[in-house]
Amino acid sequence: MPIKQQLKQSLIIAFWFMILTFPIMVIKVNTIQNIIVFRWFNLLWVGILTFVASLVWNYFLRRTEDGKKKDFEDDTPLIHRLLQNDRFRRPFLGLLAAFFIAYPFIFPMYHTSIMISALVYVMLGLGLNIVVGLAGLLDLGYVAFYAVGAYAYALLNLHFGLSFWMVLPLSALLGTLFGVLLGYPVLRLRGDYLAIVTLGFGEIIRIVLENWDEFSNGPRGIADIPAPTFFGHQFNQDNTMIYIYFIVIALVLMTIFFVNRLENSKIGRAWIALRDDEIACQAMGIDKFKTKLTAFALGATWAAMGGVIFAAKTSYINPMSFTIWESITILCVVVIGGMGSAIGVIAGALVLILLPEYLRAVAEYRMLVFGALQVIVMVFKPDGLIKSVRKVYTFKTSQEPQQEKIAHGTHT
Amino acid sequence: MEPILDVKNLTMKFGGLKALDDVSIAIEKGQIAALIGPNGAGKTTFFNCITGIYDPTIGNVEITPPGKNTQSLRGLKPNYVTERGIARTFQNIRLFHGMTVLENVLIGRHCRLSSGIIKAMLKPPSQKEEEKQAVYDSYKILEKIGLAKYVNEMAVNLPYGAQRRLEIARAMATDPFLLLLDEPAAGMNPQETKELDDLILWLRDNENLTILLIEHDMKLVMSLSDWIHVVDYGKKIAEGTPAEIKANPDVIKAYLGEESDDA
């Protein structure tokens, strides 16, 4: 687009914004003195800022589009290229490990606490990534399994005195069980219909927890959930936070390890195939229903474990922690991070959970900035922050004479 | 000898529409058979009924895999039909675009692998071995079909002709005895069609496959097929050798239309 046309377009946009924001930004009614103040300078600022923003926006948009036209081969995300580089990988992972080990000792407890939240979201994100990113099942009720985990710990501890370490594996099983129970009837649906039904299931769990007083203590929630112990030893409050931090780190590592293995296994490939084309997938001999159910159940497993950590960390839970917004946030983590990409989801969780916390400095505009950032990511990086990259297999060129050369010699 | 695929009195109704009406087709082992007919004649519906995507209203589909007993496919889900040894390709290419070429073929191996979730997570030696074997087998298939150079490309980035061949490679990976090809030459240039012709013959002769194909390219059908079945408006109107079909007045009528008396 020629520069003149661009300037014209930006001018129109600026003008439009000036009209649009006129009632809020310019007119101010002073109800005490009963006068109206016109703040014309605000109008000027809105105009200039929108004009510049529009130019910048267009510039970047064009750059993204030009980038797409280029060769397909060079769009491997930077982080993947770095991780494939042997000389770089070790020092990088070493530094990363050092940073995360040192983290709770360098930063005050508040930072450790929000990092734990972010890491729990990494777990949740990686779990939901199996369901949404790999298997392509839009699940809007994922928070239900998170609630199952949290309440499993709270209730089992309250009634039977089970400790954190006993409940953690139990909750994983319970999560899987609930995944199967909820998945079984709804997985015949697909796309939008599945999304709506899972949304309903998520709400059902929350409403049951809220209203079944005898079972879950209702909206009052459950308090005094004990923190995890270290072979029977109970740390003081600060050290408990650090202890939980390391438990989460271990669990996140375990999640990454297993999810990565699943992704590149027979079952992981079946999930992706199911996402890409259901009919072709079945025609290739894959049991559609079983594959969907495993994705749903395995996704639920990580959510339940995340729930246990959440309960142990906050020591108090009530149904308000498990609303639909929680599901949406986790979904945002997956979509903005990069569907199907484990590294993307990790980055997404850290950005999406940590950013609002650190944006508290600009408290009033926190959610505005947050929303704007999400829009920007989706416009300029529609595949997410770090898009998924498939495994590359290497082969030695085979020595034996290739039969196809004889059969049809035109191509080799 | 029993025919390898024996379709008896197949009828498929969609509401009031009879997409297939009492079609019976038998295919012998080692044949290259073709199913032809004008657009909308019910050819793809026929494939979908055999492979379990549709459940036929009336009729039965029986297979006799080499060295095994006759069994019915009626009411089986598509994945079980594939497990029994029937593989297919699609008229409109249905590759898994989020995966590499090799992974597409690995999906075809899926039903021949045994490792479950637990094994995938713990990766015992048996699973590693199986995975290695599957990757090796898939690569071999790609070599045979002539796609080895694309092995790590994303399937969606392949040239059109190569995508069609990849569909065949993926179907081959399921270890079929019968291969159903739905318009494999659609949209191919003459050179690619020639290569496809060679490939299909090669598959029959070297991989011991029986092949049933739907095709509109008459030159390809006539040169390739041993036996041709013709359907029109859901009814089978003729079958025979290419020479017989060329001379059959009913077939000519179906393709070219009939001279109307009151015109």
Throw out a few tags for this protein:
heterodimer, A: 412 residues, mainly alpha, ABC transporter involved in vitamin B12 uptake, BtuC, 2 domains, two-stranded antiparallel sheet, 72% helix, disordered C terminus, B: alpha/beta, six-stranded mixed beta sheet, 10 strands, 22% strand
Write the topology of this structure.
The complex is a heterodimer of chains A (412) and B (263).
Chain A: H1 3-26, E1 27-30, E2 35-38, H2 40-69, H3 78-84, H4 86-106, H5 109-134, H6 143-160, H7 164-186, H8 191-211, H9 213-216, H10 237-263, H11 266-276, H12 278-283, H13 288-314, H14 324-337, H15 342-358, H16 366-380, H17 403-407
Antiparallel strand pairs in A: 1-2
Helix pairs in contact in A: 1-2, 4-10, 5-10, 5-13, 5-14, 5-15, 6-7, 6-8, 6-13, 7-13, 10-13, 11-13, 14-15
Chain B: E1 5-14, E2 17-27, E3 32-36, H1 43-50, E4 58-63, E5 71-72, H2 78-83, E6 86-88, H3 101-109, H4 117-122, H5 125-145, H6 160-172, E7 178-182, H7 190-207, E8 210-214, H8 218-224, E9 227-232, E10 235-240, H9 242-247, H10 249-256
Parallel strand pairs in B: 3-8, 3-9, 6-7, 7-8
Antiparallel strand pairs in B: 1-2, 1-4, 4-5, 9-10
Account of the 3D structure:
In chain A, strands 1-2 form a two-stranded antiparallel ribbon. In chain A, 72% of the residues lie in helices and 2% in strands. Chain A has 2 domains: 3-70, no CATH class; 81-380, ABC transporter involved in vitamin B12 uptake, BtuC, CATH 1.10.3470. Chain A has 412 residues and is mainly alpha-helical. Chain A has helices at 3-26, 40-69, 78-84, 86-106, 109-134, 143-160, 164-186, 191-211, 213-216, 237-263, 266-276, 278-283, 288-314, 324-337, 342-358, 366-380, 403-407, and strands at 27-30, 35-38. Chain A is built from 17 helices and 2 strands. Chain B has 263 residues and is of the alpha/beta class. Chain B has 2 domains: 1-85 and 176-263, 3-Layer(aba) Sandwich (Rossmann fold), CATH 3.40.50; 96-167, no CATH class. Helices cover 39% and strands 22% of the residues of chain B. Chain B is built from 10 helices and 10 strands. In chain B, strands 6-7-8-3-9-10 form a 6-stranded mixed sheet, sandwiched between helices. Chain B has a 4-stranded antiparallel sheet with strand order 2-1-4-5, covered by helices on one side. Chain B is globular, with a radius of gyration of 19 Å. Chain B starts with a strand and ends in a 7-residue tail after the last helix. The model of chain B has no long low-confidence stretch (mean pLDDT 88). The chains are: A mainly alpha (412), B alpha/beta (263). Chains A and B meet through helix 10, helix 11, helix 12, helix 13 and helix 17 of A and helix 2, helix 3, helix 4, helix 5 and helix 7 of B.
